[in-house]
Structure formats: structure tokens, C-alpha cells
């Protein structure tokens, strides 16, 4: 099954709606709590990143009996140095975002740690595509 | 496990099917069918929200009548600390405890005292650092059930310690048996502001068996206590607790008692849900302890309490202040026998939201659900008897409702039918048709 979300940029307060809906869907499908947790953590991080850094974007989720695939696409500024961004603690978040408790530099490493597969393609000035994959059976 | 015994029940005669309750139930456990509300047992967490919002008083918590104590030769009351805050101008717990004895109890032991012992134990567990952060308190049974059905991935974060009322019931029985009273003669009655604690005394999930023999609602005993309290000049020395234990009744009380600085205290089920969402997203693992209480004001706002929670909170401050200087406390070897304070059974996940056991079928149902939802007006009016349009769509795919239950869809159908009838009525049989 497929789910599609349009995410607004800069909306810290409502950020997380898409991940909340996906979580509810996974519960309705009876997916194990442990996997729900992994998906929650990584998808929430990705969604927040999209809100803080990329002025929003779109999220497409596909769920089959074997896998959960999440594609996040934005046309934001892109990531200049991906290797650096993957390091724990590295952050380019604005002062405002940091003051609100976001942008601690844990986003990408956390997403990688909690997903079974993560690929990022990014181009400065064009945007970023994140693909997160999870196996339903551990 | 067999049938779920719930404390919260519906009085069918009083229910007018107004749909007030379906909107506020945090687990979408209520539907109105044929003009009456129905509670779906497997989803109800006994939070008592529906008891509060029903203006026809059709929802109630089933508790034991006071007479029930007469089934036992030796009657013990274990009152929740909320009881102390219900009476105007009474700050000395000894007065309330003495009045309980006058009502017919042979002995009174405060749950507040057990709360202090539980606090010490949970501190030890928290220092142990073996538990995933944040540790979530297990004190509110409505929250434990909420986690079980809505946030199962957080089950490992729950503090696996028994509740103060359970601990006090155990201490009481051990002690009384120790001084020669026969086990079968002892009846331990919890005086409760809480519906969920009635359910979890009758059907505990994490221990084999509750030591509580009956739960009496605070509301019921309040009416009987008021005249007795007035007659007490010289209270007996019955109190053992101090401010920390008594404070457990109020939001933040448990965290304050244990002195854990890095903690969050949240009350009101909607607020709790927001915090648990954050925990599930991994956003609060820098917090040590979270105390979640289903009722606004904590147990002071319990559905079986009499006084308004904010007024009770003011009285709680006065009681705590009184207690700081009150050295008139009872000293008995009640706690010499150690008891087991830990859960002996794991808390199981309850996947009540699951649409089908077969994942492929569940996906099909969910796709169908989305289609239905997209046809519905999405205004969540509740006229169909479900709390939201989405909940109606869920009920339809689970074959518990029809799309025509939606008044808007019904109207559309009627209009289509009317149009068809007009078209049909214009088609005259050829035998009488004017044109032929
Ligand atoms: S007690 Fe709470 S969960 Fe149960 S039906 Fe009432 S509102 Fe819903
Ligand atoms: S806050 Fe207290 S009274 Fe309310 S449901 Fe929880 S334990 Fe019961």
C-alpha cells in the first residue's frame, strides 16, 4: 500500500504529522513494536530535517508484507559535505532551530542506525533524496 | 486471558445516545449503536474520561459496596492519599483515618506509606542504569494499559514495580498473619479515586494475584465519612506516612519524592499521548524518568474523587505543611516482613488496532479503508456513532458498520434514488405512451 504526504517547511510545531500517521498505519497492520520504533525514530528525524533544512518536501511510503520503503524528496539547498553530515554531532541547523531543541547533529546518524538500509543522493542547490528501507521480519 | 473485566460500565437506561463520550475516549473505544453507547472491552483502558463527560451519568465505575467488608472477620482499609484532600479544613490525616475505623474497619494502613517504600525501590532501579531511558512510571494503571495498546514499543521502558496499593495490601496481610490473624479472615479494602485501579485489582496483568480483596469508591465512602469526621475530637495515632508519600496523589509527586531531578511529570491523557509520541520518536532519551498520569491533577482528579482537583491540590499543600511539623505518628513493625515488589509476569503487547492477522489482508483492508475515508465528508460529526470519519471507515472495513451510517452518504444515496425514480416515472409503458 502507498501513502503520500506533502510536508510544509519551517513548521516546527506541526512537524511529525506524517511519521505519526505512518506509525498508526503500522500499528493497524500489526507490525512488531520493535520495527515500529525503528521506523518512528528514523522517519521522524528525516521529516524534521526536511522541515528545518529544506523548506518542506514530499514523502512517499510503500508498505508490502515484506518491506517498508520511505522516500523523502525535497528541493532544498542540498547537503554540501555528506560525509561530514553523517558524523555524530555535526549540524548546520539554524540558531532558531537549535534553540528549539532541533539540529543536535544526530539526525542522519540516527536514521542510519535505525534503518536497515539508507541511501542519500544530494546536490547543492537542487535538493536531497533520502531512501529508508526496513525489513518487516527481523 | 479470558474476558476482560472492566470497572467502567454503561447504565443502558440512562444513556440517551448523545455521542458526547465517543469524542473524548482516548482509545476510540466507544461507539453508539441503536441509540446507546457501547464500550469495546479490548480497547478500554478504564481512564474514566467517559464517566466525567457523560452529563446523563450513564457511565459509572463498578466498585464494592461498603457492606462487603462484613464478609470478613478482620476488616482493613487501605485509603489512597487522595482521600485526605476531600474534606474542608481537615489537615490532619489521623482524623480521616480514625473516622474510617469508626465506620467499621478494624485496621487502617495508608497507601501513602507504601508509596514511600516503593519510591526507595524505584530509585534503586533507576540508579541501576539497566533500563532504557526514559523510564516510565507504572503507577497509573490507565497509562500502563494505554502503552500496552497504543505504544507497545515502550513496554520495556515501564518500571516493573508493583503499585503502592498492592504493596500495602501485601504488607498488611503479612503483618496481620504474623500476629496470628487467619488469612481467610482478613479482608483488605482499597479506598479508591480511580476506576483503573479497580480493574487492575480484579484482573492484575503483571502479578499472579492481587492481595486487595475489594475496592470501595472514594465517592461512596465520602458521604459516610462526613458526619463521622465531625464527631472526632481526639484522633487516634494511626498515621505513618509523611509528605512524600501523601504527595504521590498529585502530579509530580512520585518524581519529587524520589528526588529525580531530570524528570517530566505529565497529566491528562491527551498530554500524556503527546509525550509518549515523543518518547516513541526517540526524542526524550535524555530524560531519566517520566511520570504519566491519566487524570488532570493526577489521582486528585480521579474519576471517583469528590472534590475538584484544583481545590484538592490547595488542600494537599496544607496537609503537607501540617505534616512537616506533625510528629504524632504511629510506629508498628508493619514492614519487617519483606515483600516481593516486582512484576512477576511480563506485560504483553495488545495489538487491538490490528485490522487482520494476515498482513496481506490487513494491507488490503487498509487500502479499502483509505478509499472509504476519502468518500466520507471528514468533518467528524459523530452522527454515525463513531468518533471520527476515519473510525467509521475502520468500522466499515471490519464489517461493524455501513457507509450509509454516515448521514451525508445516506442523503446522497437518497438523492440518487430520487433522481432514478424521477427518471423512471417519466418512462411510461408503451401501451399508454402519448407518443406511440
Ligand atoms: S474508560 Fe476511558 S478508555 Fe474506557 S471507554 Fe471510557 S473513556 Fe474510553
Ligand atoms: S491518574 Fe490516578 S486516578 Fe487517574 S487513572 Fe491514573 S492512577 Fe487512576
From TrEMBL, chain A:
**Organism from which the protein derives:** Vallitalea pronyensis
Write one Pfam family the protein is assigned to. Answer: HATPase_c
The answer on whether this UniProt entry bears the keyword Cytoplasm reads no
Domain Histidine kinase/HSP90-like ATPase as annotated: residue spans: 49-135
In terms of InterPro entries, this protein maps to: HATPase_C_sf, HATPase_dom
Q: Please give the coiled-coil regions recorded for this protein.
A: none
What's the protein here called?
Answer: ATP-binding protein
| Alphabetized Gene3D superfamilies for the sequence | Histidine kinase-like ATPase, C-terminal domain
UniProtKB/TrEMBL annotation, chain B:
Q: Which UniProt keywords apply?
A: 4Fe-4S, Iron, Iron-sulfur, Metal-binding
Can you give the residue ranges of the 4Fe-4S ferredoxin-type domain? 6-35, 36-64
Is Nucleotide-binding among the key words of this record? no
Q: Which GO terms describe its molecular function?
A: 4 iron, 4 sulfur cluster binding; metal ion binding
Which superkingdom heads the taxonomic lineage of this protein's source?
Bacteria
InterPro entries per the record?
4Fe-4S_dom, 4Fe4S_Fe-S-bd, 4Fe4S_Fe_S_CS, Cytosolic_Fe-S_CAF, Fe_hydrogenase, Fe_hydrogenase_lsu_C
Q: Where is the 4Fe-4S domain?
A: 364-423
Q: Which Pfam families match?
A: Fe_hyd_lg_C (PF02906), Fer4_10 (PF13237), FeS (PF04060)
The protein, known as? 4Fe-4S dicluster domain-containing protein
